[in-house]
Specification:
Elements: H1 12-26, H2 28-34, H3 41-63
Length: about 60
């Protein structure tokens, strides 16, 4: 759960920006968009496979350093 404490009422824009960053980092927006419509089992498997490949690619790229 994302919580943002606003110390001053004048800093509302800062709090909104901080909230957006936290939700993006935790992947809440991405998952909400994904769950908006039903995902077929074959699409689910395909998406998971692509995510796995991208993770492995990133991991391989980082190990080269």
């Amino acid at each position: 759960m994302v919580t943002v404490v606003v110390p001053d009422k004048n800093k509302l824009e800062f709090a909104i920006r901080l909230f957006r960053k936290k939700t993006q980092k935790e992947g809440i927006v991405k998952e909400a968009r994904r769950r908006k419509e039903f995902e077929k089992p074959c699409e689910f498997r395909k998406r998971k496979e692509q995510e796995s490949k991208s993770r492995l690619k990133r991991k391989k790229k980082m190990s080269n350093f």
